[in-house]
Structure formats: C-alpha cells, structure tokens
Amino acid sequence: MGEPPGKTGRRDAGGTAPAVEDRWTQLPPELLPLICKKLPDSADFVRFRTVCSAWRDAAPLSDVPPQLPWVVERRGSAFQARAHFRFYSPSSGRTYGVRGYGGRSWRVMGGACQEHLVTTVDLSTTALYNPLTGERLALPPAPYPQWRHGVVHVVADGRRRGGAPLVVNASTRTGHFGYCRQGDTKWTLVDGRQDMGHRAYHGGRFYVNTNAQETLVIDASTGAVESVLPPPPRSADAGAGVSCGDYLVESRGKLLRAVLFPRDGVVATSAEDYYLNVYQLQEDGKAAAAWAKVESVGDSVLFFDKHGHGFSLEPNGAAELKRDCVYFMHEKRTWLDAGEYRFLCRYNMETGEVDRVVSLPDTFGDSWVVPGLCPSE
C-alpha cells in the first residue's frame, strides 16, 4: 500500500523526527470498514491492519474481504522434498511463498478449499493446514489405500460458523466416500455406487449427483439413502446436448445446482461457447423435494473448480468478484506444442455472457484455497 502520507522520515538538526500529523489516522472511523471491504487481496488486508491501531480495529481477522481464491502451484512430482507452498493470486497477479510443515515429502490434495489445504506428509499423516496462519488440524488416517483405490479428492469446506471444518474423501474405484470433522477419531464411511459424482453437504445430508443426473439424498449420520431426486428440467435451449459440468454448492443456506452446457450442443472450443442453467432445491414440506430453475443467484458469487468442487462467496468488485455470476475453469490442450492453457471464466446470470477473468500460469491451477487469517474454532 506504500508509505502513509505524513511519515516522510525527515529529521531536524538534532536527529529527531518532527511531530507531523498523521493524516491516515484522522480518517472518519465509519469509512475504514468501507475501504477495507474494497481490498482485492489478503496481502493488502494485512498491510491495511499495520497502518495504525484504528485501522487494525476496523479490520478484524474474522472479516477478510471476499476475493478470488488463490491457486496452489502444481509442478514436479506429487511427492517431493520442498519446504514451502507457492500461491498465485489472480486478483493482484502476485505470487506468494509460504513455508510448509512436516517431513521430507508432502502432498496437496486436489480440490477447492476454504481457508485450509489438505496435505499428506510422508504418505501417511493427513492434516488440514492453513498456510497463512500455520495452523494444523490433524485428521484420522485416510479411509482408503491411496495407491490402490485412487483417492480423487479431499475437500475442506472451511471454518463453518458454529462448527468444525468438514472434510470429504472419495474413491472412484469403490464408489464409497467418507467424511470427518476436527476431533473425530475415524472417518464415517458412506456406501455408494459406481456412478456417484459431485457431492455437497447441506442440512445434515449429503446430496450426490449420479451419471443419470439424479441426486441421491443421503443422511450423513446413518449413511442411508433417504430419497432420489429426479434430474432437473431441461431448458429448451439445452436441446439434446450433453452437459460438460454438473456442480452442487450451498449458498446462503440454499442448495444450488449449476449445469454447464456447450452452446452448440456438441462441444465448447472456447470459453464463450458455454452457458449455464442454475437450479435451486425446493423443499416446502407439502410436495416432494425437486430442482427448480432460477434466473439469478442474487448477491451470491458461485465458484467451481475443474474437479467439480465449489463454494459461494460475497461480491467484491475490486477483486473481480461480481454479483449474480458463476466462475468456472476452461481448460484446453493444444496438441501442437503439447501444452495447455487455462482461464478462469465468469458467466453472467443476467446477460448469459461469458468473459475470461484471468489466464492462469502453466504451473498453477489444480487446487484452490480462499485465504483465511482467523484460526478455526
């Protein structure tokens, strides 16, 4: 943020600094939270807090401004000796190095996370790790043999209000998945089917999409399938096209489902070739629960990674988080140079248009984390 005006570092003949009024500290207190909310990056938030005590009081650690998630570096082998994490901030274009923990090797599990990464150290110890605070929350040993069953993702939903982080661990080979929270001594396993796909946790239940586009409603405490929701109604513009993304996310106490389609019904060759249908789970108690199409997500900002994991954020124009928009990844491999390019794209629910927010560096793009500075409860 630079040096605050009024602090010039000039000294008089006696070698002492003159008493210069610090104009930054004289800003009206009611303006400080408004300024803080416009900061696009966690690093700017930290600098904001160091200006003076009044600014620090106006920016509690529990109230970091919403921003585009940081993306974790992906380079080299999955397990290797290195002592730090590297992150890229799409909002500021900066790259940050954060010291890690553990033994000679560690692995960051794929998937979007809030505040925490899920890491495996020395192939056995799994933990939630907050790279900004250094906080580490131990997890029970992984419920599946990692090399034989092929763990797909471990997702941390982040610090929930009034509860501990929820971690979900799934396997494509068996169709099972398990979950645990901080303090659990073992994973709670849920019997599944081979066709289970993306999942979300909402109101004590897991909602899991299948290959047939149905949604299984699973009681988290018993693992029993309570009901099966039919596929959402297809809009006329979807035609017979096959979806290229089907995501579930909880937003402001509601469960939403976003289905990504190619506009021509066949294939999307660029980011502009996509459109989205968004549905909300309707539970009125008088009729069976079902998906109902919505034309807006209001003040919510939905974010999905290429693995199908997602979360809901608040708008922040300075950080390119625009209201009533859905952010997703577009990735295309170019055979000419055996490389690939990736874009973070934004779908505007009001206009139906897609624009590219930022192009991601080649060495980044598999795992996302929303930086958090407040320790978990």
What does the model show?
With 377 residues, this protein is mainly β. 6% of the residues lie in helices and 40% in strands. The strands form 6 sheets. The protein has a 5-stranded mixed β-sheet, with no helix packed on it. Strands 22-21-23-24-25 form a 5-stranded mixed β-sheet, with no helix packed on it. Strand 24 and strand 25 (354-359) form a beta hairpin. The radius of gyration is 23 Å and the shape is globular. Residues 1-13, 16-21, 76-81 and 158-162 have low confidence and may be disordered.
The largest sheet has its strands arranged as 3-2-1-26-5
Proportion of residues in extended strands:
35-45%
- Secondary structure: number of strands: 26
Largest sheet: 5 strands, mixed
**Rough outline:** globular
Average pLDDT confidence is 76
Secondary-structure content class: mainly beta
Q: What's the number of helices?
A: 4
Give the SSE map.
Layout: H1 31-37, H2 42-49, H3 53-57, E1 70-73, E2 84-89, E3 94-99, E4 106-108, E5 111-114, E6 117-121, E7 125-129, E8 136-138, H4 146-149, E9 151-156, E10 166-171, E11 177-181, E12 188-190, E13 196-202, E14 205-210, E15 215-219, E16 225-229, E17 245-251, E18 254-262, E19 274-282, E20 290-294, E21 301-304, E22 310-313, E23 325-334, E24 339-348, E25 354-359, E26 364-370
Parallel strand pairs: 5-26, 21-23
Antiparallel strand pairs: 1-2, 1-26, 2-3, 4-6, 6-7, 7-8, 9-10, 10-11, 11-12, 13-14, 14-15, 15-16, 17-18, 18-19, 19-20, 21-22, 23-24, 24-25
